[in-house]
Amino acid sequence: EIARWRANVDVSPTTWAGGTLTNCIVEMSMAAVDYATPSTNFDANHGFLRTVVHSGQVQFLPGSADYEQALSILERTVGAHHRAYGEALVDLGSARLGQHRDAEARDLFERALAVFQEAAGPASLASVKAGIFHADALAALGEHDAARKGYEKALAIVRPTFGDTHVVLAEILARLANNLAQGGHPDEALDAA
């Protein structure tokens, strides 16, 4: 039974009041699409093994997601080159991407990528993931060629560093295939997948 719902801060406003969802249905299934690019047609997001895991009332608490304030605090306390600052940039970038503020997201992910490359190195998993998010923002802006280069750069790091069985490799390949399909290259998308 679900007793409480946690708001998705990536798509919620910066603050929200608590309350009750009186008629809430939660379904789970295998994903038919990448979690970062869900369809607005919610049924299209579900794959096989779909089942209702909750039907009824759910309470949710008030909250806020003030990422700008977090960035300001981190910049004053640990500095703008600290890994924690990069993680906060990724959080804010993800929120902006969820709000379809794609140009802001691109810039934030680009800053995070620079922080991670300096703090952890260009082949670190944090740098790779920031690069993937940056490519996601480029794809959302319709800059499919630039996004493709970002995904391919991430692949070039992940394969030799983490191997062909790392979960990040599958994520990159799926994102690359989606980007190629959206960019008008369906045959290459099939090859990438």
Short description:
This protein has 193 residues and is of the alpha+beta class.
Largest sheet properties = 3 strands, mixed
Class from helix and strand fractions: alpha+beta
Percent of residues in helices: 40-55%
Strand order in space, largest sheet: 1-4-3
State the shape: globular
Overall mean pLDDT score?
A: 82
Cα-based radius of gyration, to the nearest Å: 18 Å
Ordered list of secondary-structure elements with their pairings:
Elements: E1 4-5, E2 15-16, E3 19-28, E4 51-60, E5 63-64, H1 67-77, H2 83-98, H3 102-120, H4 125-140, H5 144-162, H6 167-182, H7 186-192
Parallel strand pairs: 1-4
Antiparallel strand pairs: 2-5, 3-4
Structure description:
With 193 residues, the protein is of the alpha+beta class. It is built from seven helices and five strands. It has helices at residues 67-77, 83-98, 102-120, 125-140, 144-162, 167-182, 186-192; strands at residues 4-5, 15-16, 19-28, 51-60, 63-64. It has a three-stranded mixed beta sheet, with no helix packed on it. A two-stranded antiparallel ribbon has the order 2-5. Helix 4 (125-140) runs antiparallel to helix 5 (144-162) and helix 4 packs parallel to helix 6. The longest helix is centred in the middle third of the chain and has 19 residues, at 102-120. It is globular, with a radius of gyration of 18 Å. The model has no long low-confidence stretch (mean pLDDT 82).
